[in-house]
Fold:
Amino acid sequence: MDVNTEKFCYPLLKDALPAHEVISIEGGEEHKNLEACQQVWDKLTHFHFDRHSLLLILGGGVIGDLGGFCAATFKRGIDFVLIPTTLLSQVDASVGGKLGIDFQQYKNHIGVFCEPAATLISPTFLNSLPERELRSGFAEVIKHCLISDRSMWDVLKKKSLTNQDWNVLIPHSVAFKKEVVETDPKEGGLRKILNFGHTVGHAVESYFLSKNRIFHGEAIAVGMICESFIGWKKNLLTKEELDEISAYLKQIYPTVTLPSARQPILDLMSQDKKNKGNRILMALTKGIGQAVWDVEVSAEEIDASLDYYQSI
Amino acid sequence: MDVNTEKFCYPLLKDALPAHEVISIEGGEEHKNLEACQQVWDKLTHFHFDRHSLLLILGGGVIGDLGGFCAATFKRGIDFVLIPTTLLSQVDASVGGKLGIDFQQYKNHIGVFCEPAATLISPTFLNSLPERELRSGFAEVIKHCLISDRSMWDVLKKKSLTNQDWNVLIPHSVAFKKEVVETDPKEGGLRKILNFGHTVGHAVESYFLSKNRIFHGEAIAVGMICESFIGWKKNLLTKEELDEISAYLKQIYPTVTLPSARQPILDLMSQDKKNKGNRILMALTKGIGQAVWDVEVSAEEIDASLDYYQSI
Structure:
């Protein structure tokens, strides 16, 4: 757990757990690195964890990715259970077995695919969540509707953030992601649709990592607007659909001020795990409710999409 | 590759390879750590390796374990090919998908199971190998005979190190290990027989890691003598079999002087990945040519076996 989940979430579980030791680390993306892994590995060693031990991971996406990676690599892998406590980690990181840490300025650059022994999701944890965290997680819920379910998008777009029905949306998102991931566990094809908004979004998130950090979902909202613009340019979306997506995302998310020099963001995109050779490949929506993947996108198109984002 | 294999082995392959970049790191167990991984990950990033890139790993066990771990964790895993250049790595590390690095004083404490895309073995590389390296690898060949094939042991024990027929022994060892590993990839049962000699051996090797380092096979030879003694004490071996094993190993391997205070070695054993809870579990030969696993061994028995080793 991290110092936050130790304070707000651990007390809700503590008495229900059998004998255990606590490993608490600093939270936040800036600590999702090798140094934190070394702290966890050191504690696991200190507590004499063996291959039959179980690591419960209580926290948001950072703790889940990092804790899972530590478990998956400690003595070549011990079992772990994810207990995601944020909306983002419940609807996204909790499914798919993607684990890892940041390296240098690259997000999730070092990691493995490894499934938890179990994942336990309770909406109760969302009560302790700051609104900005909730909004961040909501971006993935929106993404799942945009790439797979137009009717759910039509329901969702009529409501503000705080009026959403999480008891419907969380299972909807988890079930959809689970189906995609089980069809294509190693991201050979279909699973790539989940990367909609993430090529531009990750680069934007990475760009601000060392500056005035923005939340994952805030960056993905930027990415979804930019990549919808690119989709419109490629005749995958109508102008009306682009406007509908942009308007809703702009209403929910604060506008991020991008640097006028775009090269650092483009350079970050060239390190994207989805690329092949030197070509930048994206997943884009085709209309609303469907998606395609491995669409080659030029630096000029990305540049124009960032201009579009900043202009609206 | 490491600086040695770059000098002695790379020239044999270089002209046969397609376009490639070279990553060369310091060799030796003392560099099988996170710092070296960071160097490799940094180079892979620098060369813009993506998920479709291939890492060829040219070297002994250290390079194979570390390079494989780096590949298996870079962008959540890229393909790699092992080209083991030492006898030890050819008959042992090349099969089974065990990858990893040392952490603090613990060997292979951090790692994953992941199979290479291919493994290429050529006895040609052994010509450039110092005799001490050859002797180190020979310990695993001996182990494979002791736990699985009495008739091959009877052939092998009549010859000195330099008279062995590697064209027979290498395929014999690889085929045996491959069969065991495919039957039990995650070391749930049978595969544990490969740990014969390794509970005591790893602890002895770890003990000397920060001192006057000894080679893996030299430590495993100590381990096989000690664990054969424990097997005799547990009526798994006759006195004649114990004497036969000890005499051959003592003839091939120099005697290691163990510390008179045994606690540090026992403490290292308590971190062994094969343990369950606080019990120390070993794989032991049953006669010569068969083995059993998960045999609980007490600190006193281990202590007595170290005395035996030092007395003969």
In short: Strands of chain B lie at 54-59, 79-84, 98-103, 106-113, 118-119, 280-285, 291-297.
